[in-house]
Amino acid sequence: MEVIITKDYDQMSKVAADIIADQIKRRPNCVLGLATGGTPVGTYKELIRRHKEGKLDFSKVVTFNLDEYVGLPVTHDQSYHYFMHDNLFNHVNVAPQNVHVPPGMAPDIEAACAWYEQEIDKAGGIDLQLLGIGGDGHIAFNEPGSSLASRTRLKTLTEETIKDNARFFEKESDVPRFAVTMGVGTILEARKLLLIANGKKKAKVTAEFIEGPITSQITATALQLHPNAVVVLDEEAASELKQRDYYKWVYAQKPKVAEAVKA
Ligand code: PGA
Known about the structure:
Blueprint: E1 2-6, H1 9-26, E2 31-34, H2 41-52, E3 62-65, E4 67-69, H3 80-87, E5 99-100, H4 109-122, E6 128-131, E7 153-156, H5 159-165, E8 178-181, H6 184-188, E9 192-197, H7 203-211, E10 229-234, H8 244-262
Parallel strand pairs: 1-10, 2-3, 2-6, 3-5, 6-9, 9-10
Antiparallel strand pairs: 4-8, 7-8
């Protein structure tokens, strides 16, 4: 796992946008896995800025979102469908038919989850999956106890997640109790993973998922199983990492490694 420690939220967002933009440039018809929440907003702003400057073309990009609340219509301003349009899709030239968000209102959720997995397969799999991390260590809505081999399915949210997400709703009781989410197994099949985290509140769980043992109690630890995972943090989120100085040293050596490989 590559760990990149940046000075603040803005830098974290820029580095994450660099990685995503690089993917789009290398493969203009790439398949991106996208995330919601407070963390990726700055990354999306940066991608929009680059698009508006004419430096980034989304016309052939295909997207799959990680998760969606059950029971919120797509027009609800807290649905993830709405969030993605508001924070990214409405501001770039992504083709509407290339956008996929798990269906949270399907009459048959199980069938809808199977369909979502098939759509990912049909698209050739995900090239780069963006991820945040929840206070309880979840990736997507894979709450503690989720199988590390899980696929897209219905999950019941933890009390911690409901409390964390209450800030986006008028009151805590408005937060949906269920979500449809890609599984940990689905996420691990992406060819590259990019997890971003910022702020003191994420410091403990960040140290646990990068340096602690792999456990379904902290589903982000599954990143340790992935051969191509990058984590971009700000200083605060990185503050409890034991190997913090080593990660910084490795990152500083990167240009030298590239030169040595070329020579
Ligand atoms: P946040 O959520 O970006 O709002 O902190 C992250 C998550 O729950 O995955």
